[in-house]
Amino acid sequence: MLNFRLLLVLLSVLVAALFGASLLIGPAGLGVGTSLRALLAGQGEAAVLVMREIRLPRALLGVMLGASLGLSGAAMQGYLRNPLAEPGLIGVSSSAALGAVIALQTGLAAMVALALPLMALAGAVLSVLLLLMLAGARGASLTLILAGIAVSAFAGALTSLALNLSPNPYAAAEIVFWMLGSLSDRSFTHVWLALPFMALGWVLLAPLGRGLDALTLGEDAAAALGIRLTRLRLSLVLGTASCVGAGVAVAGAVGFVGLVVPHLLRPAVGGRPGRLLPASALGGAAMLLAADIATRLIAPERDLKLGVVTALVGAPLFLHLIYKTRKEGMW
Amino acid sequence: MSAFAKAFRRRAVALGVWLGAALPVAAAPERVVSLNLCTDQLAMLLAAPGQLVSVSFLSQRPRVSAMADRAQDFPANHGRAEEVFLMRPDLVLAGSYTSRAAVRMLRRLGVEVAEFPPERSFADIRAHLLRMGRLLGQGERAKGLVAAFDARLADLRVTGGTRPSVALYGPNGYTTGAGTLADDILDAAGFANIAAKAGLPGGGTLSLERLVMLRPDLIVTGARYPGASQAEALLDHPALAALRADLPEAPDTGPEWSCGTPFVLDAVAEMAAARAALEPRK
């Protein structure tokens, strides 16, 4: 097992490096010097616009979204004691997308800017509550995944319906955006819209470490250790919904980040869910930045969706996890 | 005559009758149904009263149709074979890329269908006006419209002077290049389309970053559709707003830009006025 502090430092360095790379890579093909002068000193009119208004918000959102997804994935898996729990896979993201699409298509978001993240958050809360109700606190794998499939399919169908009924001819093509997510051409408007809700989610989820650690001993033992389970559960629901809802509202539903990252980092933190929280947040940010850079390198002019890249990495791992879980007789 | 020869003759006669039906006949069609926004407008411009039975629902929408008011006088169709067949048309007008299944079905049912590809230039507008005139038995009226089109175009065309650069920036960052109606409109109004300079001579997706770095003299975007879309939300990006803040107001690309009809000249006039407003700044 790696030293925990060292792990966090290494992950932070990785995030910082990818953040820098995200700022320097783009279709405008600016040199490193020009980019940095424009970003830091504000030299070069057009380059400043590119660096400060186009690339900086995109990179910032990458960090925020990745951290949110990694953190909520780790928290959900810790609480349900199930490595398959991930916002994208169990329908939380698609429910948030439904909320966001309703806010946009009804014109609510145009009237009140905050309606967009709030509606996405409402969609996320509803689905998390529904899942906890169906799967129970222990989160039996089969029930959880089946309930997740049902919620995903239902929310996805309603999202498609809302977009197909839209009077806007471009709306129907956006089903892909809401299913797979993208950071292309996101601006500071999106950053400011998502940040408060994501921050709230981080504040709610980050202190859950001790409770999640105790939960590994079982609910009775955790209660005996002074963990208030109802409060833990409330924080988890609201925190996950805030993180995922805000992320989906501005960037669509990016899947698999919350699955892959905790899985990779779990051995490095000795399987302790509490330590996994900060590590997963950093790891999620790194994975999302890397995926976003990949979309720009693989098909620069095609607007390749973020979720395509994360799914290419995540889906095979998901299959592997299902196989392993079945062998261990968790079903 | 052998049995074989008889059968061959019968076939040949049948083929002749079939070909004759497909050729433009002397008598003008009496019940014409149009399935495509652009053929709708050509037909409305040329058809005799009562000759046109129905137009597509799109041509009744002011956001996309330059003749939305006129189109209200006709029952609308949605380009579906069943509804069109029930209108008992003797000529159906369709775009060569739209309502494909309906066109195939109508042909199988023996309805004559004339297809029009999208107009890609002013030359296409003249050719389509004349063809539509022949099909509807309104050849003289079509010639008159072409003459009027050429006269007004000659009047409007901006020649000489500098050619300021203009970017057509649509939803999803799509920019239109050479070989399109929009390019001809810009050319006639005395602009140089930035698509060529951006390395997209035929048009394509131009990233916001590249657009910012290219700094065109004018940015023209499309009029908005109702409802929300991410594709159009790109046009609200703060970087684009900052870029446009330094540029003069530009007209939106409205319905005049979408179809090859004489209405494109309204777009030319609008763009020529925008260019004139740009002149003192140069």
What does this structure look like?
The complex is a heterodimer of chains A (331) and B (282). Chain A has helices at residues 4-24, 32-41, 45-80, 92-105, 108-111, 115-135, 141-165, 175-180, 188-205, 209-215, 219-224, 229-251, 257-265, 273-298, 306-327. Chain A has 331 residues and is mainly alpha-helical. Chain A has one domain (58-327): ABC transporter involved in vitamin B12 uptake, BtuC (Orthogonal Bundle). The two termini of chain A are 29 Å apart. The mean pLDDT of chain A is 90. Chain B has two domains: 29-118, Rossmann fold (3-Layer(aba) Sandwich), CATH 3.40.50; 165-281, Rossmann fold. Chain B contains twelve helices and ten strands. The termini of chain B are far apart. In chain B, 44% of the residues are buried. Classes of the chains: A mainly alpha (331), B alpha/beta (282). At the A-B interface, helix 3 of A face helix 9, helix 10 and helix 11 of B.
Number of H/I helices of chain A? 15
Strand order of the largest sheet of chain B: 3-2-1-4-5
Task: Provide the helix percentage of chain B.
Answer: 40-55%
The count of β-strands of chain B is 10
CATH superfamily of chain A: ABC transporter involved in vitamin B12 uptake, BtuC
How far is it from the N-terminal to the C-terminal residue of chain A, by CA?
29 Å
Q: Strand tally of chain A, please?
A: 0
Counting helices, strands and paired strands, the structural category of chain A is mainly alpha
Q: How are helices and strands ordered from N to C of chain A?
A: HHHHHHHHHHHHHHH
- Main beta-sheet annotation of chain B: 5 strands, parallel
* Cα-atom radius of gyration of chain B: 23 Å
Radius of gyration of chain A over all CA atoms, rounded: 20 Å
